[in-house]
Design goal:
heterodimer, A: 644 residues, alpha/beta, seven-stranded mixed sheet, two-stranded antiparallel ribbon, 8% strand, B: 81 residues, mainly alpha, 2 domains, 3 helices
């Protein structure tokens, strides 16, 4: 039980832990940032005469003790370390409420760290604003001197307008001077004009407090100016508009190359391994078990195993992209790239970090969707995730190559380049549309997230390795399930005979559920000049993966794409088909085909990843919008093009 | 009570400089304030949600523990996985 005695707090040393609320009886509140020597000072003042109590309004335990001052017992409370009084943390709320609830005449001893004075002064400014009598207690002077910092206590007192005493609690230096100053403050209580509100400070308060801190530090002797670091020197180049942008583009090109040229052979090797030795082994094993041939082997080899091969073939690509992104992030470059790209991305309502997933999308949409996690806000991740499928991934290139070579043999390169430009245009238009529909994903400039740049450093490769393994495991277990199930479903559609009396899994595509379905949807493609079941089946197969569309065209025309001259034969068949379906405008129809291939659902792997990243609802919306946009654009290209 | 600012706020100027891509050291030099003061200002800006450290932003989550800013991310690898 606490007792008030001549204006100070006294209590018997054998009392149990006092209940909450009793802190208000303390006459001295020790306030300071964490690790400024506050508790050391508290121990030096109170010795063993301490008890634990709950801080006001919290379950936070703080120590209270007794300081024998001129024969009187003074209650001292060692409040939690805090950087501010704006009540954003439990500790800050405890300090703010202790100040607000303190009784008349309570003195605040604010411990100031001489090695980090601005931070301490910022807290002091807020305590001064509380209207309580304040005494500054300067600690860490020895460390400040060893660092070459010079501080004059009298100058600091003059600049702050309060009494400031330098103490060294470990060596008990300055405690007498502090006792004298405190006794005088306790003897002449100051009226409290207002209490500190236990509310969050506004930006105007923060600016006012920092302006006061600045005025105090300006009045102190100037410190040695900080020299330019290696990071500052590198940033002068990397963040310069004329150098930073080309370097940024070069880095992005490197990422693009990584996800196409470098990862390509690895993907092919895994796919070949799955379709070759693994498929042969499974086939032999099934034969040995008496389950060879027929639909079950087809299901296992062409459905499950192909799906597993697709999933695993993405693993090296994802590992490379995660590694590259991790190195860029860990080195500190990713944050710089975001700053460089920020202005352009803001036009479409995103911030600079969104450029990374969008660039990676030109290699492969799957890791690009994974890379949207670099964005800090859910809405930014959503918008970037919805835009990624419009970046023209490498898998769409075989489709472009086949059609451009068949219909524009002299301008194939230009046509393909134009499709990549169209992809950039689609992303920009899509971004503007989402900005209009969903609002700015990135906040307005004044309130925008400010990225505090870290220094350049060597990435922690061990941590990065753990992160890559965890994320690959996540991809295989989550997106992988969706991909395999979808591929098995596509196999089933192509294996189920609908007409012609074929055996299951030995049916030509035209007589399969897939072929019949293609015939049914082919009229939908008529406005694009593509009303043909071969084209419809190819585009439907392209849902599995864009490169599958070429194979599906070849098999639907009963052309083996691997035979010599088969490419030319397929081109001839395509030219004949489009000449017929387009009413004499096969080149325009081919363009519409390519634009449709650019804009519609990239592949089931991407859909699986969208489902993982964006959730079912937004994946359904995204896929629906892609199909509509692709159809509208294809129709526009054909209908306008044939008039020209 | 501390006085109202009598000149342009260094706090706002610092945030503007960092928004342009300045490091803390470079921004402090440009504004002729100490790096300690700039650090204190940016720490407070982070606490107020006005700024975020690139290390604490989502990034590619190479940090051993998923940062708090990643917790709402559907793509974030959960630590309980």
């Amino acid at each position: 039980m606490f007792h008030r005695d001549r204006g100070v707090v006294t209590y018997p040393s054998c009392d149990p832990v006092p209940a909450p609320g009793e802190l208000g009886a303390a006459s001295v509140l020790l306030i300071g940032n964490p690790n400024v020597g506050k508790s050391t000072l508290f121990n030096a003042l109170t010795g063993a005469r301490q008890r634990a109590v709950n801080a006001p309004g919290t379950t936070l335990e703080i120590a209270v003790g007794t300081w024998h001052l001129d024969g009187a017992k003074v209650g001292v409370a060692d409040l939690p370390g805090a950087f501010s009084l704006d009540s954003r943390s439990l500790e800050e709320r405890a300090v703010a409420e202790a100040l607000a609830e303190a009784e008349h005449g309570t003195v605040a001893l604010v411990v100031l760290d001489a090695t980090a004075l601005p931070r301490s002064l910022y807290l002091l400014a807020q305590v001064i604003d509380s209207g309580r009598p304040v005494i500054g207690v300067l600690t860490m002077m020895d460390i400040a001197r060893s660092r070459g910092l010079s501080l004059d206590v009298d100058e600091l007192a003059a600049a702050t307008g309060i009494s400031v005493i330098a103490v060294d609690p470990r060596r008990r230096l300055g405690l007498d001077a502090l006792a004298t100053t405190l006794a005088a403050a306790l003897a002449a209580p100051v009226a409290v004009p207002h209490a500190v509100p236990a509310a969050v400070a506004g930006e105007a308060d923060v600016e006012r407090w920092f302006s006061w801190v600045e005025s105090v530090t300006d009045a102190m002797p100037p410190q040695t100016p900080r020299r330019m670091t290696a990071t500052d020197r590198i940033d002068r180049v990397m963040l310069h508009p004329w150098v930073g942008v080309p370097v940024f583009l070069l880095v992005m090109w490197g990422l693009f190359e990584l996800s196409t040229t470098v990862a390509g052979p690895l993907i092919s090797a895994i796919a070949s391994f799955a379709e070759g030795p693994v498929a042969d082994s499974v086939s032999s094993g099934l034969g040995y078990l008496g389950a060879g041939g027929g639909w079950f082997e087809g299901l296992m080899i062409d459905g499950v195993l192909t799906g597993l091969g697709v999933v695993l073939s993405f693993v090296p690509l994802l590992a490379l992209v995660f590694l590259a992104l991790g190195v860029l992030d860990g080195s500190g470059y990713l944050a710089r790239a975001a700053v460089v790209a920020d202005r352009a991305m803001r036009v479409i309502g995103l911030d600079g970090r969104a450029v990374l997933p969008l660039m990676i999308g030109f290699g492969c949409n799957v890791p690009a969707l994974e890379a949207t996690r670099v964005l800090p806000r859910a809405r930014q991740r959503l918008v970037a995730g919805l835009l990624v499928p419009y970046t023209s991934c490498a898998a769409r290139l075989p489709v472009y190559l086949l059609l451009a070579a068949a219909f524009f043999p002299q301008q194939a390169g230009t046509v393909i380049f134009g499709l990549y430009l169209a992809s950039v245009f689609l992303v920009a238009i899509g971004g503007l549309a989402f900005r209009r529909i969903l609002g700015d994903a990135a906040p307005a400039d004044r309130e925008s997230l400010i990225l505090v740049l870290p220094p350049y450093q060597r990435p922690d490769m061990r941590t990065l390795g753990h992160s890559i393994v965890a994320r690959l495991r996540g991809f295989v277990s989550e997106a992988g399930k969706v991909i395999i199930i979808a591929l098995v479903a596509m196999w089933a559609l192509a294996a189920i005979p609908v007409r012609g009396g074929h055996d299951p899994a030995e049916v030509p595509i035209v007589d399969s559920a897939l072929g019949v379905g293609a015939e049914a949807i082919a009229p939908v493609l008529a406005p694009m000049g593509l009303d043909d079941w071969h084209i419809a089946a190819a585009l439907a197969s392209g849902l599995v993966a864009k490169e599958v569309a070429v194979g599906a065209l070849a098999s639907s025309y009963a052309v083996d794409e691997n035979d010599d001259g088969a490419g030319a034969e397929l081109s001839d068949r395509l030219r004949d088909t489009l000449a017929e379906t387009s009413g004499g405008h096969p080149r325009v129809a081919a363009l519409a085909f390519m634009v449709f291939a650019l804009a519609y659902v990239p592949c089931l792997a991407t859909v699986g990843q969208m489902r993982r990243s964006l959730g079912r609802r937004w994946t359904t919306i995204g896929v629906g919008v892609q199909l509509i946009v692709a159809w509208v654009l294809g129709t526009l290209v054909f209908q306008v093009g044939r008039l020209l | 009570m501390t006085a109202a600012p009598t000149r342009d706020s260094s706090f706002a100027s610092l945030l503007a400089a960092v928004r342009r891509g300045q490091t803390v050291g470079a921004a402090a030099r440009e504004l002729a304030i100490s790096v300690d003061l700039a650090d204190a200002m940016l720490d407070e800006a982070k606490r107020l949600g006005l700024a975020v450290s690139a290390r604490e932003a989502c990034g590619t989550c190479s940090a051993p523990v998923t940062p708090a800013s990643c917790l709402g991310c559907p793509a974030a690898t959960r630590t309980d996985e």
